[in-house]
Sequence to fold (156 residues):
Amino acid sequence: VRINKRVIAIAVCKPEPTLFFFSHSGSRVIPPIVMESPVGFMEIDEKDNLLVITAFAEVYVWNVQHMKTIIKSSLVSLLDDNPPFSIDHAEIKENGMPLVLRSDQQAFLYHKGLKSWTLVGDSESQKKLPAPLLFEEPALISLKEKSMSFSSALIA
Fold:
């Protein structure tokens, strides 16, 4: 369950994974969305953008108010390595794009124009950059301080 000022989003797993959306008065905001796999993580921002990451590493961002898909992507390429990685944290940025922090502390931001995940920070590459190029995006600082984990839902 995730709640903002206008929307209550509820994920249900049985009989099939489904998302339900209600107003605070109890009326249905949009029709239920049947998912391909169970929801592992869900967040809604104040602009009614809902980020969903499924147990099969599918990523969706919908604008609930406008009933519009913003992103449909996958994290499989970010997780499928030796050893396999997990996602320690995810959040929606102000521009509506998802940011994920992988278990090795690499942070990836979805770039809508490129339709790809872009590496926006990792502890090793930042140490190797010349001083003028070093940066610590505020979002990455907040991610490092958070301990929220849903990695067990993403590793089947």
